[in-house]
TrEMBL record, chain A:
Keyword Aminoacyl-tRNA synthetase (UniProt): yes
CDD domains named among the record's database cross-references: TrpRS_core (cd00806), WEPRS_RNA (cd00936)
Entry protein name: Tryptophan--tRNA ligase, cytoplasmic
PROSITE patterns: AA_TRNA_LIGASE_I, WHEP_TRS_2
Highest taxon, organism lineage: Eukaryota
All residue ranges annotated as the WHEP-TRS domain in the record: 13-69
Entry EC no(s): 6.1.1.2
InterPro entries in alphabetical order: aa-tRNA-synth_I_CS, aa-tRNA-synth_Ic, Rossmann-like_a/b/a_fold, Trp-tRNA-ligase, uS15_NS1_RNA-bd_sf, WHEP-TRS_dom
GO function terms (MF aspect): ATP binding; tryptophan-tRNA ligase activity
Organism, as annotated: Alligator sinensis (Chinese alligator)
UniProtKB keywords: Aminoacyl-tRNA synthetase, ATP-binding, Ligase, Nucleotide-binding, Phosphoprotein, Protein biosynthesis
GO CC terms of this entry: cytoplasm
From TrEMBL, chain B:
Protein name: Tryptophan--tRNA ligase, cytoplasmic
UniProt xrefs under InterPro entries: aa-tRNA-synth_I_CS, aa-tRNA-synth_Ic, Rossmann-like_a/b/a_fold, Trp-tRNA-ligase, uS15_NS1_RNA-bd_sf, WHEP-TRS_dom
Keyword presence, rRNA-binding: no
GO biological process: one example: tryptophanyl-tRNA aminoacylation
Family: Belongs to the class-I aminoacyl-tRNA synthetase family.
Single GO MF descriptor: ATP binding
GO (cellular component) term, any one: cytoplasm
Organism: Alligator sinensis
Amino acid sequence: MSNRQNCDSGSLSPLELYERVTTQGDKVRSLKAAEAPKDEIDTAVKLLLSLKLMYKATTGQDYKAGSPPTDFTPINNAPAITEDDDFVDPWTVQTSSAKGVDYDKLIVRFGSSKIDKELISRIERVTGQKPHHFLRRGIFFSHRDMNQILDAYENKKPFYLYTGRGPSSEALHVGHLIPFIFTKWLQEVFDIPLVIQLTDDEKYLWKDLTVEKAYEYAIENAKDIIACGFDINKTFIFSDLDYLGMSPGFYKNIVKIQKHVTFNQVKGIFGFTDSDCIGKISFPAIQAAPSFSSTFPQIFKGKEDIQCLIPCAIDQDPYFRMTRDVAPRLGYPKPALLHSVFFPALQGAQTKMSASDPNSSIFLTDTPKQIKTKINKHAFSGGKDTIEEHRKYGGNCDVDVSYMYLTFFLEDDDKLEQLKQAYTSGALLTGELKKALIETLQPLIAAHQERRKQVTNEMQALAQALIEEDHGE
Amino acid sequence: MSNRQNCDSGSLSPLELYERVTTQGDKVRSLKAAEAPKDEIDTAVKLLLSLKLMYKATTGQDYKAGSPPTDFTPINNAPAITEDDDFVDPWTVQTSSAKGVDYDKLIVRFGSSKIDKELISRIERVTGQKPHHFLRRGIFFSHRDMNQILDAYENKKPFYLYTGRGPSSEALHVGHLIPFIFTKWLQEVFDIPLVIQLTDDEKYLWKDLTVEKAYEYAIENAKDIIACGFDINKTFIFSDLDYLGMSPGFYKNIVKIQKHVTFNQVKGIFGFTDSDCIGKISFPAIQAAPSFSSTFPQIFKGKEDIQCLIPCAIDQDPYFRMTRDVAPRLGYPKPALLHSVFFPALQGAQTKMSASDPNSSIFLTDTPKQIKTKINKHAFSGGKDTIEEHRKYGGNCDVDVSYMYLTFFLEDDDKLEQLKQAYTSGALLTGELKKALIETLQPLIAAHQERRKQVTNEMVKQFMTPRKLAFEF
């Protein structure tokens, strides 16, 4: 679908919506014909359904293949697609709203707590550091037990960080950087150990991969993670396939967790069914186990009571709700959490950026040209159809993906605010906003690529080895 | 229930049966009141149901609490309880027949092959050794792919032995020795490596134990196993809880197997349900994995294609049917199997000897006096009610537990045959048969206790250290 110069319609025209539904329908069909992995098909199907919902909401008509919209009555004051249409689980994120998932409703639904101004001020006080812009801008927006963590820190009680990644074949995209950027900041500000889990066993179980290939991807992804700049003396990165077979603590905690979680529970939380393999069914315990310090006896000297803080995207929360439920029964402290919003796909915040959909993503391996092209061609715009309209009414930052990306990556608060005001007033055109983003992203990604080149196999092997953590734990 | 001198009735009198049902019913009630582990209750319930069946078959009446049998019409030519009543899974063995499980029907049901004279002769030819009396007497009675193993041996292709034990708190009983006695003989005759798995993780998952206690039991049980006389240079004994966390091969094979087995399958094979914990559901893969040589890279130098021979009791077969089904999909050779009959409980071959039922068992820790008392008091007799009847009609070796035990432990074929003929003819009385058994068992158990005393913690450690054995691959 070509974009007219200047901008896409803030809300797509019926015809454009119609074309998008058609395109997505074709995509689903071709994925099925190619016997693509089930989750790819599921993601595509969910997007298709969402687009159809949008089509109906906009035109008042049901989408009919071969029947492009002609006369239609725009529905005024139609109720926004309710938040009940937000679908969030660890494998799929889906909403009909162009603004993205309603995070306030998600907090209520998940039972977490909003990261409010008060908490952000407290973090500033306790750490003596200006809070990261992710906190200030609501990119990390929800938490569990963060106040408890701050209490511990004030009382000089230790805690540690835990985050992770499911290593996949595709390169990482810029959305993948978010938890790592924030985790790095947390590590610096609190000066604490960090463990990073590469769930290559999960990928083996869910994807059509050999064990060897899954492990290979883990090593490759580790390089990108290291390129984010973690302190080698304070960070342990591990592959499940590897570390499970060389840790006195990991398997014992896994089997303890597995004893206290039933199939009914994981069915309810993750949607497993009787035809799922027993590996998938028992996997959640493996993502849970690093939440407990006894999983890393070499780092924590066998101590079992050191609390864990987990920065992650909100779709990972189900694993840790389950973990927090089990922890007391094992006599372990519950992990605390910091949740981030999803990184919106290029074509709109209805879905998150996904490595399996190249047009939705800007990859860490993209060239400056590719970055420019993708943003110009595919980044969903909140601007108006014509320059005149745009000057008059201004652009909508709530749905504009380029603006959203700037909130993630433009560190300067003032510059960001300027762009927001200028765009909203219409003074700044879409093309100019996109230019600002391109000029922010190109150096960022180029710098990452440079650091990644420097991550030699040697350095990576060091990071992967069991290193003695000398924090006096 | 006291035994009248000389013998119990070969078939119990209706009143005795009635009393047994009552006693068993009381036992079930007290187990439930004490909130005993589910499997203990299940075993007791199954025995109760079986006794009720026997009662009905003998008296023609349904058992009614508080209504002992008075007048009854014995059913002549009543059909024997059909083999459909034989219940066999890894946790429960149950039959109504006093002769024990019908093993020929079990072979048909399980799809294994009978160890016939031809195979036994071939074993003799190929090894140049007289076949163990367990083979000659049908104690190891069934197999899968044993001819393939003999082919490999003839072609100087390597293979290895794998057997195991679920370590429990109770001491081992004489029945537990059977697979180990036979495995030791196989190791000597074929001169091959042996791995022995102690499923302490299984016990943790199924029993009310801590991980530490389960591991403790594994170490204790290892001492009894070592006391059977395995060659320290050819044997690796491992605890799952330990070895999983120190093997580059174990977890990888587990996750491969777990990917290829669905919940539906383990539901069908093992009877798991939705309310079972995810640890139980995924456990079968852990018992399967040692069937593949890549689980022991330090022994087999990373070779993946070395076939495995598994001597075990027939109730373990479900684990290995599942394993044999998965093996080709992983590109691994299917394990071969040698199945043994169950070791009958003291009170009769309807159930197997069980450590959780002290009166059914002779323990390796029993004193000579305890051995004598248990056999005299509790061993079910195939003799007649009175000496006169016994002299006239003789005893029934098919149901006599003391005779059955002699087939296991009296190595001298001629002596055994003498006893059989004398007892069957009535020349030998029950008490004398029992005396022969007592005099066989007492030295056997005493010798075991002596060897166990000689097992040091150092030896245990050595047996349990992952290491290269005295074989080149």
